[in-house]
Design a protein that fits this description.
The chain has two domains: 166 residues, 2-Layer Sandwich (Phosphorylase Kinase, domain 1), CATH 3.30.200.20; 99 residues, Transferase(Phosphotransferase), domain 1. It has 275 residues and is of the alpha+beta class. Helices cover 48% and strands 17% of the residues. It has a five-stranded antiparallel beta sheet, sandwiched between helices. A two-stranded antiparallel ribbon has the order 6-7. The chain has a two-stranded antiparallel sheet with strand order 8-11. The protein is globular and about 50 Å long. It contains nine helices and eleven strands. The structure holds adenosine-5'-triphosphate and magnesium ion.
């Protein structure tokens, strides 16, 4: 209950801060020396050009560059319907992945349905950007919860409004491929076991992924890293069993194609929810 309130208040604070930022924008820009503006603007503009981000997002990115939370953008990894994912560097030159959600009223409409019913997020506003900010925060929180449980997910680094920064999964500039695209799996049996254990441990950490499939598993050196955890729900969510069964079905369907022995969906479900 308290956590729900905090979430909401934090988002409201973000709004106020954002609003103030808009107000004091000209003033702030004047304060920064011209050479730095030019450098930062180039990165932000590069982003604005290859995507469809609103002015507020571009301004926020510029702020993250100024605060040196982001060092520089390298390029786009994936352009999706709801979000784009970029490869960037932090200030020490380490690779990071930046997921930027688009502020869009159609997206926020279905997101709203997903958040409603999650006991962690009691008050859900109507404003599209408010819902999308909450969504990004939800992904960050879910990542944290999973990461703390020792699960194989990208380490969460930072979240602000619609921008989520996390550990980059890849080999140098080449991002890790999704499981669906991996041509040769050395040991599908072992991999199935790892993904199955992921579902089990995540459930013990009180979460259900809700969109688990070969499309949301990255493969690095034959090891699975589970991503796209934004829609994950608390096991207390009224639809958590339904989502869990769907996740189990997806995983079993995918791995049974390799001719390996898998439990039935029912067996797996009862095994996962026990204790
Ligand atoms: N931490 C990361 N490191 C490397 N690549 C990543 C990372 N996170 C996401 N990606 C890449 O970006 C793609 C989209 O990420 P994600 O699945 O989280 O977003 P999405 O909104 O579901 O997009 P889509 O609808 O295209 O699946 C992934 O399939 C993967 O290729
Ligand atoms: Mg995805």
């Amino acid at each position: 209950m308290e956590e729900n309130n905090t979430d909401f208040e934090e988002i409201e604070e973000d709004f106020i801060e954002e609003y103030d930022m808009e107000e004091s924008r000209d003033l702030e820009i004047k304060k920064i020396d011209k050479r730095r503006i030019k450098k930062k603007d180039q990165s932000a503009i590069r982003l604005a050009v290859d995507s469809v981000f609103d002015e507020r997002t571009v301004f926020l990115l510029r702020k993250l560059l100024d605060k040196q939370i982001i060092g520089d953008f390298v390029g786009i990894i994936n352009a999706g319907k709801e979000a784009n994912v970029y490869l960037a560097y932090d200030k020490e030159g380490n690779e990071i992945a930046i997921k930027i959600y688009k502020i869009d009223s159609n997206t926020s409409r279905w997101m709203r349905n997903y958040i409603t019913g999650d006991p962690r997020f009691k008050k859900v506003g109507k404003n599209p950007s408010q819902i999308i900010f909450l969504w990004a925060k939800k992904e960050f929180k879910n990542l944290k919860q999973a990461y703390r449980a020792g699960l194989s997910v990208p380490q969460p680094i930072h979240v602000k409004n619609n921008v989520l920064i996390m550990e980059y999964i890849g080999d140098g500039p080449t991002p890790a491929p999704i499981l669906k695209k991996v041509k040769s799996l050395e040991n599908p049996e072992k991999l199935f076991d790892e993904v199955y254990q992921f579902i089990k441990v995540l459930y013990k950490a009180k979460l259900v992924h809700g969109d688990l499939s070969e499309f949301n598993i990255l493969m690095l050196d034959q090891k699975p890293i589970i991503i796209d955890i934004s829609q994950a729900v608390s096991i207390d969510h009224p639809k958590s069993d339904q989502y869990l069964i769907r996740d189990i079905k997806n995983v079993i369907n995918f791995f049974s194609k390799f001719g390996i022995e898998t439990p039935t969906v029912k067996e797996a479900f009862y095994d996962i929810i026990k204790n």
